[in-house]
Amino acid sequence: MAESSGPALIVEGLKEAGVDLVATLPDINLHAVLERVAADPDLVHVPLCREEEGIGICTGGYLVGRKCAMIMQNGGLFNSVNGIVSTLLQYNLPLLLLVYYAGDVGDRSFATNGAMTQPVLSALGVQHFILRDPNEAKALIKRTLVLTQDYKRPVAVLLTKDVLGRRSPGE
Amino acid sequence: MKRIDCFKVMAELAGDALVVTGAGANTVEWYACRPGDGNFRVRTMGLVSSIALGMALGLPHRQVIAIDGDGSLLMNLCSLPTIARKNPPNLVHVLVDNEVYEASGEIDTATGAGTDLVAVARGAGIRRASWVNSPDEMRTVFSEALEARDATFIGLKVERARSEVPPYPMDEVENKYRFIRHVEQTEGLSILSAHMPASFLKDS
Ligand SMILES: [Mg+2]
To answer: Does residue A133 surpass a pLDDT of 50?
Structure first.
């Protein structure tokens, strides 16, 4: 895969933003991103068993001075809702959430997850930005990290298949 | 065994360790034993050990202690394999097991029906995991845990009784700021800052 691919740009964006602790849970569409995170000696990588624990791990990291991000599927966002509400929102804590937008238009996985993703984020008051062009990945990730720190709330970037470099069968 | 008698032993030995607590009684009884700004109270049930793990990984030279409850840990059992996988030597995970959802009205948890959370921790891959049966034994096991080169899990079976201590003196947001300022001061770090108008910024 060329170094200008979406997954490479996403991880470069995280590093240029100053992120140094990343909690992740796999999805096949995140594979190329997670491989890069796991192989990067500059990132503390925490592989999760369930996404809500990642909200806690990133909170602990933030409280001792780390810049943290989570990478997960939108189903993992749903698994994390109590942690988002009663930790991140209740304590006014920043966190960069990189969420694979399964079931997005043009993505034939988990259509129901796709339909609920933006409504759930909106209900939580979590701002979110959809990343469709790999060339915008680095700038959007860097700006979103600044925003979440200024806003003191989690902010999400929704990662689409166009950026992650996989296509659904039949497309 | 009363939990506060073990907390007194831990407070003697903990030095300036960062301590994460969860349910109400663990928080206030620990705070009575070791007051100060190096304490963080968690409000999401289950996340005590996860937040402590994030601190331990984020600041690998600083001792971090999680004081967890049985109901809390049962809600986030997957924290145990994650701790085992990262195995931070500076993390001690103390389980206060009173076999009851104490803050929620004294309803029994699964631990009273036979679930052994030390066995679960060991099965998850935490090799240093044991039950402690007295404050004296806690002195030995906890001291060893502070020196250990692996993460440690300590289970305490305690009475279903609270000790008379003052209430926790701050809300979540104040706790956050005091804790972060404490980390900044004791570690020489700069964590918090405010955005300034463009006229204050150097060319960027
Ligand atoms: Mg209990």
So the answer is: yes
Residue B203 is predicted with a pLDDT of 63
Assign residue B197 the CATH number of its domain: 3.40.50.970
Which among A46, A53, A55 has the least Cβ separation from residue B78? A53
**Chain B contact set for A150 (CB, 8 A):** 195
The angle formed by the CA atoms of residues A100, A105 and A111, to the nearest 5 degrees, is 70
Residue A1, pLDDT above cutoff 50: no
Do the Cβ atoms of A48 and B44 come within 8 Å?
A: no
| CATH T-level topology, domain A5-164 | Rossmann fold (3.40.50)
What sign has the CA pseudo-torsion A99, A103, A108, A111? Answer: positive
Residue-number span of the structural domain to which B174 is assigned: 3-201
Q: CA-to-CA distance for A91 and A83, rounded, in angstroms?
A: 11
Surface of A (132-171) touching B: CB under 8 A: 150
Which residue of B44, B179, B184 is in closest CB contact with A83?
A: B44
Sketch the domain layout of chain A as residue ranges: 5-164
List CB contacts (< 8 A) between B59 and chain A: 64-65
pLDDT band, residue A167 (cuts 50/70/90): low
- How many beta carbons lie within 10 A of that of residue B61, not counting itself? 6
b/e B35-51 (16+ beta carbons within 10 angstroms → b): eebbbbbbbbbbbbbbb
pLDDT > 80? residue B119? yes
Number of structural domains, chain B?
A: 1
Candidates B120, B121, B114; CA nearest to B153 is B121
Average pLDDT of chain A is 95
pLDDT value of residue A2: 45
Distance of CA B18 from the midpoint of ligand 1 (Å): 22
- Which residues in chain A have their CB less than 8 angstroms from residue B53's CB? 46, 56-57, 60
* B56-95 confidence digits (pLDDT tens): 999 999 999 999 999 999 999 999 999 999 999 999 999 9
pTM for the model: 0.96
Distance CA A104, CA A100 (A): 9
- Closest Cβ–Cβ partner in B45, B47, B189 for A65: B189
Q: For position B204, what pLDDT does the model report?
A: 52
